[in-house]
Design goal:
Layout: E1 4-8, H1 13-24, E2 28-33, E3 53-57, H2 63-73, E4 77-80, H3 87-92, H4 94-114, E5 119-123, H5 152-166, E6 173-178, E7 181-182, H6 191-200, E8 205-207, E9 218-219, H7 220-233, E10 239-242, H8 252-263, E11 270-273, H9 289-292, H10 301-314, H11 316-319, H12 323-328, E12 336-339
Parallel strand pairs: 1-2, 1-4, 2-3, 4-5, 5-6, 6-10, 7-9, 8-11
Antiparallel strand pairs: 11-12
Helix pairs in contact: 1-7, 2-4, 4-5, 6-8
The structure holds nicotinamide-adenine-dinucleotide.
Length: 342
C-alpha cells in the first residue's frame, strides 16, 4: 500500500516500533498521540526528523478533531494502536479506558468511513478471549461483548474489537489480536521491564501468586511486521491472531528465573509475594496459523529476551526517570512470603 498512513498511539511502545518500520519502508506517517504518561516521543528520536514524518498531538476521544484531522490528512490507511493499555490502572480508573479504547475507536472508524480511507487496521488483544487452561483460541472464538474479558482494560478492548468488526460492511477493516508483547522502549509498569529495571536497581523481582501464569511472549518488531503484513495482504473484514507458540510454554516464574540467571544476580532477588491480581487470568493462548499462512513468523524468544535485557542495561537514562511513577501504581511488595527456588 502506497503513501500516507495515519498511526494512532505511535508515541507508545508498540506503535513506535510500527512507525519506525513504516518510515524505513518508505511510507509517509502521521503519528496521532495525546502523550499520556505512556506516550514518549524519545522513542522515535532516530526517525522523527525525516520529511515523511508528522506528529499531531490529539486525543482520539475528541470526535470533532479526529474527524477534521482525517479529512485534512486524507490517509490511505489508519493503523489504530492508541489505547489505555495497563490492566492494573484499569482497576482504579475504568472510565478512562472505555473513553479512549471504545469511544476513540468509534471516532476513528466513523472518520475513516466519512473520508474514504482505504483500510483500517485495528489493534485488539488476545485478552478479548479470556483465559483458557488448555488448547488455544482461534479467531471465531471471541464471544460478542465483554463476557470473556476479566478486567476493565480487556472489557474495553473486547467492545472496541466488536465495534471495529461491525464496520466491515462500510469499511475495509482488519483486526489483529496480539499476545503479550515485550522489547525495547516498553514503559516499566509492565511486568517484564518492571522486573528488569528492578533487578538492575538491586530491588527484588516480585512474582505474583504461584507464578504459574502463562503468556505467549511476542517481540515488538515481530508484531510490527505482522501489522505491516495485514496492512498489505490481510483480507478485508478478517481477524488475525498474532502470537508465537512456545514449547514448552513459559510461565511467569520461568521468565523471572531466566532473568535472574541471565543477569547473573543473586537468586534471593526473586521473591514470591503474597499479592495477586484479582481475577488474574491463568493462561492466554491463541492459534496464529491464519497469519502464518500469510507468511508471518516470529523470531526466537530467548534471543529476543536477551536483546531486550541488554537494551534496558544501555537505556538507564530513559527508564530511571519513569520507574518512580510506574512503581507508584503497585501495592504488591509488602507481603513477600518466600523466596523462589531458582
Ligand atoms: N503491550 C502489549 O503487551 C499489548 C498486547 C496486546 C495488545 N496491545 C495493544 O496494543 C496497543 C498498543 O499497546 P502499547 O503497549 O504500545 O501501549 P502504550 O501504553 O505503550 O501506548 C499507548 C499510546 O497511546 C497513546 N494514547 C493513550 N490514550 C490516547 C488518546 N486518548 N488519544 C491519543 N493517544 C492516546 C499514549 O500516549 C501512548 O503513546 C494497544 O491498543 C494495546 O491494547 C498491547
Amino acid at each position: 500500500m502506497e503513501s500516507k498512513v495515519l498511526v494512532t498511539g505511535g508515541a507508545g511502545f508498540l506503535g513506535s516500533h510500527f512507525v519506525r518500520r513504516a518510515l524505513n519502508g518508505g511510507r509517509e506517517v502521521v503519528n496521532v498521540d495525546c502523550l499520556t504518561y505512556a506516550g514518549d516521543q524519545r522513542r522515535l528520536a532516530d526517525v522523527s526528523a525525516g520529511a515523511g514524518y508528522q506528529f499531531v498531538n490529539l486525543d482520539v476521544a475528541d470526535e470533532s478533531r479526529v474527524k477534521q484531522l482525517v479529512a485534512d490528512e486524507r490517509p490511505v490507511a489508519i493503523v489504530h494502536y492508541a489505547a489505555e493499555s495497563h490492566v492494573t490502572r484499569s482497576e482504579s480508573d475504568p472510565d478512562r479506558f472505555f473513553r479512549t479504547n471504545v469511544e476513540g475507536t468509534r471516532n476513528l472508524l466513523q472518520a475513516a468511513v466519512a473520508n474514504g480511507v482505504r483500510r483500517v487496521v485495528h489493534v485488539s488483544t488476545d485478552e478479548v478471549y479470556g483465559s483458557t487452561l488448555s488448547g488455544s483460541f482461534k479467531e471465531p472464538d471471541k464471544l460478542e461483548g465483554t463476557s470473556q474479558a476479566a478486567s476493565p482494560y480487556s472489557q474495553s478492548k473486547a467492545l472496541a474489537d466488536d465495534l471495529a468488526r461491525s464496520y466491515a460492511d462500510s469499511l475495509d477493516v482488519v483486526v489483529v489480536r496480539p499476545t503479550n508483547a515485550f522489547g525495547p522502549w516498553q514503559y516499566p509498569e509492565k511486568v517484564l521491564p518492571r522486573w528488569i529495571t528492578r533487578a538492575l536497581r538491586g530491588e527484588p523481582l516480585l512474582v505474583w501468586g504461584d507464578g504459574l501464569y502463562v503468556r505467549q511472549w511476542l517481540y515488538c518488531e515481530d508484531f510490527a511486521s505482522a501489522v505491516d503484513l495485514v496492512l498489505e495482504s490481510g483480507a478485508p473484514g478478517e481477524v488475525y491472531n498474532v502470537g508465537p507458540t512456545h514449547d514448552p510454554e513459559i510461565t511467569n516464574l520461568d521468565l523471572a528465573k531466566w532473568l535472574v540467571q541471565y543477569l547473573g544476580i543473586s537468586a534471593s532477588q526473586l521473591q514470591m509475594t503474597g499479592y495477586d491480581r484479582p481475577d488474574h487470568d491463568r493462561r492466554y493462548a491463541v492459534d496464529s496459523s491464519k497469519i502464518r499462512a500469510l507468511g508471518w513468523s516470529p523470531g526466537d524468544v530467548w534471543s529476543q529476551l536477551r536483546k531486550t535485557v541488554d537494551w534496558y542495561r544501555s537505556a538507564q537514562r530513559w527508564w530511571e526517570s519513569l520507574v518512580g511513577e510506574a512503581e507508584s501504581i503497585y501495592n504488591d511488595s509488602g507481603s513477600v512470603s518466600k523466596k523462589a527456588e531458582v
